[in-house]
Design goal:
mainly alpha; 86% helix
Length: 341
């Protein structure tokens, strides 16, 4: 018997000294053991991947995966070894039903990390979309908290508008002065060439408007500089707040987020949902396979020998109990005679 077959026989949970007396059962038992082993191997991969998602540590993921796989391995061995073949299938099924339910739960636990790995690309795309939406929502929330920036920018625009109005007024006076000097007839000029009374009047108005414009322009510039400093300060503060939020957005990649993304992708694309269900059913079938094989297989020599061995132990225990009780009663009777004498 080769080493691999010996290992699969051990993995089956069958009692090996008894199994050696039933060589015809070895192939069936080795198949059950192989199923248990490969289920545990899948559990190692699934648990390692889930742990890596959470902690981002390959060493920790491998250790946790191995521990989880060994636990699943031993649980499956216990489930299979605890089922006894009876003469009635329904009585066997009734006894095995809690174990089947437990096997289904184990399969569901194993399946989810495997689904996350299989649909990793689709999940990553969905997470990128959700990060973008989260970033937009965070930015809008920050904008709402920094409304003063828009108010200051609007105030700057109002100063620019007032300055433009004064420039336009000065330009209009310049035009009227030029018309008056060069004798251009208009509603605001006399049409006489030269620097007459009207021209001098308009020149004085133009000079006053120019001085007022220069003073106002300096005032506007100082105000705008002050507003720019305040805006720059608030923008820097907003950038700092956004930088604080950014790590949580970038870190939106945990196990819970991936499970939610998998569910969302499944809702958007029925093919993904169907494939996810098929993976789940495949793992359930694989996890329940050793139990079902044992239930559906006919009662064999191993089961007969196992029942006989357990019966011997039970009868021997009953005999020893009876002997102990008889010896105890005899000692009590003898003690009673001594007391009476």
């Amino acid at each position: 018997m080769n080493t691999l077959k010996k290992f699969f026989l051990f993995a089956s949970g069958y009692y090996l000294p008894l199994l050696k007396r039933c060589p015809s059962e070895e192939q069936k038992v080795a198949g059950i053991g192989a199923t248990i082993f490969f289920t545990a191997l899948l559990a190692v991969f699934a648990a390692s991947y889930a742990c890596w998602i959470i902690f981002q540590s390959m060493g920790l993921a491998l250790v946790f995966g191995l521990v989880w796989g060994l636990m699943i391995f031993n649980l499956d061995r216990f489930i299979v070894s605890s089922i006894r073949k009876k003469n009635s299938f329904w009585s066997e099924l009734k006894i095995a039903f809690p174990r089947i339910v437990f096997a289904v739960l184990l399969a569901m636990v194993i399946a989810k990390p495997l689904e996350l790995r299989v649909f990793e690309r689709e999940i990553d795309r969905k997470l990128d979309e959700e990060r973008i939406e989260l970033f937009k929502a965070s930015k809008l929330a920050l904008e709402a908290g920094f409304q003063e920036i828009e108010q200051l920018r609007e105030e700057k625009s109002n100063y620019d508008l007032d300055l433009s109005n004064k420039v336009a007024f000065r330009d209009k006076l310049q035009e009227e002065y030029d018309f008056e000097r060069f004798g251009v007839k208009s509603s605001s000029s006399s049409g006489m060439v030269g620097l007459g009374t009207n021209a001098k009047k308009k020149e004085a108005q133009l000079d006053a408007a120019q001085r007022e414009l220069e003073v106002f322009s300096g005032y506007v510039q100082s105000k705008k500089d002050s507003l720019d400093r305040r805006i720059a300060y608030l923008e820097d503060l907003k950038t700092q707040e956004l930088a604080k939020i950014q790590p949580s957005i970038d870190g939106f990649d945990g196990l819970g987020a991936r499970l939610d993304a998998l569910r969302a992708v499944g809702e958007e694309r029925p093919s993904i949902s169907l494939a996810s269900t098929m993976i789940m059913l495949l793992l359930i079938a694989l996890e329940c396979a050793p139990i079902l094989v044992k239930l559906l297989a006919p009662r064999g020599p191993y089961d007969e020998l196992l029942e006989l061995t357990e019966r011997r132990v039970s009868v021997f225990a009953q005999e020893q109990t009876f002997k102990l009780e008889q010896a105890s009663e005899q000692r009590i009777a003898e003690f009673g005679k001594v007391v009476e004498g």
